[in-house]
Design goal:
Blueprint: E1 2-8, H1 14-20, E2 42-45, E3 48-54, H2 55-58, H3 64-68, E4 72-78, H4 85-97, E5 102-108, E6 124-128, E7 130-135, E8 138-141, H5 143-157
Length: about 160
Amino acid sequence: MTYILVTGPMGAGKSTFMRSLPRPRGNFVVPDNVPDMMLDHSCELNGMMFYEIDAPTAIGKIWIDWIKASDMQIVVGDGRNKPDENFVELWNYLTENTPDTDRAIILNRTNGISNEWSDYSNERIMCVGIGETIDEETAIASETDILAITKYLSNKNG
């Protein structure tokens, strides 16, 4: 199994990404050697175990085992804006504490990568456009974009 951490600043679109993953989804299996914690969203999809941790929580020391358990880290950012201090703080924390873990950046709410993200050009950056707004609090990302990302992840993680 491949464990994929989905994280990012509050409001960046992590939950939208998780909600938009294709169905059917399987049950999440907790990795070995991590403390029992309540996760916002978690699921299995094609042998990949996705789990979401908000940025302020992720940099808390009690979550370090969950951070280190990931084989891949997806950091979601609001693509309409430049990387803010919360994104930068989280990115630096992840790269310092898990330097050998693969990472990708998902820019949410956009179809293009602005020059303001050029500091991260060595990373795989993908965009997720807006799909369907269900209500004021709930949205689904572009199905085409999500399928492209899950295909990339499946190919990368075998």
